[in-house]
Amino acid sequence: MPKNRILLIIVFLTSFSGYGQTTIDSLENQLSKSLPDSLKIVTLFNLSVEYQYQDFNKSQAFANQGFDLANQKGWNWAKAKALERRSFLNSINGDFISALRDDQELLKLSISMIDSTAITTCLNYLGFDYQELGEFDEAYYYYSQTYRMAVAIKNPAKISTAYINLASIFKELGQYDEALNYLELCKKINLEIKNSTAQPFILEEAGDIYLRKNQLDKAKEALLLSLRLTREQKEFILEPAIFQKLAEVSLASNNYTSAFAYYDSASIVYKKSNNQFGVAQVKLGEGKIFLKQGKYDSALRLTEESQALSHSLNARKAESDCLNQLGELAEMKNDFKKALYFYKKAKALGDSLVSRETLTKTFQNQMRFDADIKNSEIAELTDFKKKQTKAIKQEAFIRNILVVAMALTAIVLFTVYRSGQRRLRINKLLLEHQEEIKQRAIELEQLNKVKDKFFSIISHDLRSPINSLSAILTLMENQNLKPEEFSRLAKELKLQFNNTKTLINNLLDWALMQMDKLKVQPVKINLLELANENYKLLSTLHLKEISFNNSIPENCFGLADSNMINLVFRNLIMNALKFTESGGSIAASLQDKGTQYEICISDNGVGISEEVQKLIFEKTVGYTTRGTANEKGTGLGLILCKEFVERNGGQIRVESELGKGSKFYFTIPKFN
């Protein structure tokens, strides 16, 4: 249940509904009449809200009708409300890919309308979508942007929402004390603005944190209080989510009867509203109980039913959870082959979520850029308006002074002039100070992004080969591998660990570089031998047949740090191998540039688009994509290449065309 965005949705329902407590019958009767299009759209959205708790399919149908009519009329205000409604329904139905698509469109629309409040809301929605897809670095970015916008527009309710969202991110990262601190801030600000509607959501989030900390008594106390407040405030949308959490607390306490009872309560609510995603979640939870009880057949039946429902709803993250549970069931039955199959399928589904998200990266970056531009425009317009008002008041004041004080002496005029000059000097100093603070803030934000990128890479890219090794060792221990299967898996595992070894080396070099621990120690370098050595080493790590032509002349020596330039050769040749099909070729060449040598590593592989060429050397972006044999990357290699080349007094650049290959050029000083 998407609790992180429910607070904002409640505001939307309250402000948008034209009829308050109007029943479904009266709304449908109103819709059957000849209404103006604007009132018809409002009625459709209100029907969608009312049916949300009784018939989920009808709720979606009314939301889509409102969207179509808004689109037809070209009314941005109505289209924005329709997108917000559709996105919310998709998210509570587990289809976070569709919710993400609607929220991206909603953000674009809000930016075009220069609506700061709507932009803040959209950033919050996007953060939630990415959180549910497991992309916590992206979620943290959007939640932090939500907080900045909320502070800028001085909206305490949205600041409160940002706090609870940030708490949920730290909870997912296992930093429970930090998460609880954010919930305290959220509680404090809601007390200040006298907003009691947020308290059930804060308690529900706190209950989940205590559950993960295995503080079961505290978890149960917080969740039961949240349930009581939810019913008092009639915010029934949160009720089934609380039931599910209470079921998990009971399961952790080995109280299976209570766990089943809470899941049954959640199921009744979901079935009443025809919410199939909620039903799928309950089935998965009940399957966990049977699994813990050792009733594997019942657990298997419920988990398979949940997986089928999740698949039909396009709820990919939920389906991945089901596949992992099926893998665990297979392990319990000692069917390790089947377990490995389900784990691989779950991982592939998770990777497809990431790849789908990657398809939107370019658009997403453009949206971020547009949002920043529009926010700057809004700030400039606001500042201009304030200055204009101030100038008008000053002019009126001066006119009055001139009328009243025509007889001021030359001394008074000179004093006024001196005072004006002094104010100008003070203003100039203040502007310089503000610019310095702004520059430091930018530098700190960039360092924070670098840190977030570092931890994101560690959490995403070091986990896969270790899981694969664990699964294969289990199969070997139970003698479930045939010789030919072991040979094939060993090759795949070798390739994964070679990639991981390169990743770890790059991460360590990158970390040392960020801490300024790497010092440049120039020595004489034989460029021909360095290129040959790196190709021979890297070609053994790939299964592709790719030729290498090294035309660097003999006796060409550079003056640079040997380890750094070796890393540059290694990463550029490895990238060429990665993005070149089997049967292709790679070449190394050199040009004399006077005091420097320019080395070129070229290939006839897939090439790089112009948009991506602008990103690949950016430290805070870390752009990456998979190779022709599905090799993974992190984007760190080229960032390190740029840093190391520049630290040795050189420059690096790229020339590429899609389908025709790429050429990477870098320069280093000559050894005289």
Rounded mean pLDDT is: 77
Secondary-structure content class: alpha+beta
Strand order of the largest sheet: 2-4-5-7-6
Main sheet attributes: strand count, strand direction, barrel closure: 5 strands, mixed
The number of strands is: 7
User: What percentage of amino acids are in beta strands?
Assistant: 5-15%
* Relative helix content: over 70%
Count every helix, treating DSSP H or I runs of 4 or more residues as helices. Answer: 26
Distance between the termini: 68 Å
Q: Radius of gyration, rounded?
A: 31 Å
Helix-strand layout with pairing:
Layout: H1 3-16, H2 24-32, H3 37-51, H4 56-73, H5 76-92, H6 96-112, H7 116-132, H8 136-152, H9 156-172, H10 176-192, H11 199-212, H12 216-233, H13 239-252, H14 256-272, H15 276-293, H16 296-312, H17 316-332, H18 336-359, H19 361-404, H20 410-461, H21 463-477, H22 483-514, E1 522-526, H23 527-539, E2 547-550, E3 557-561, H24 562-578, E4 585-592, E5 596-603, H25 610-613, H26 636-647, E6 652-657, E7 661-669
Parallel strand pairs: 2-4
Antiparallel strand pairs: 1-3, 4-5, 5-7, 6-7
Helix pairs in contact: 1-9, 2-3, 3-4, 3-5, 4-5, 5-6, 6-7, 6-19, 7-8, 7-9, 8-9, 9-10, 10-11, 11-12, 11-13, 12-13, 13-14, 13-15, 14-15, 15-16, 15-17, 16-17, 17-18, 21-22, 22-26, 23-24, 24-26
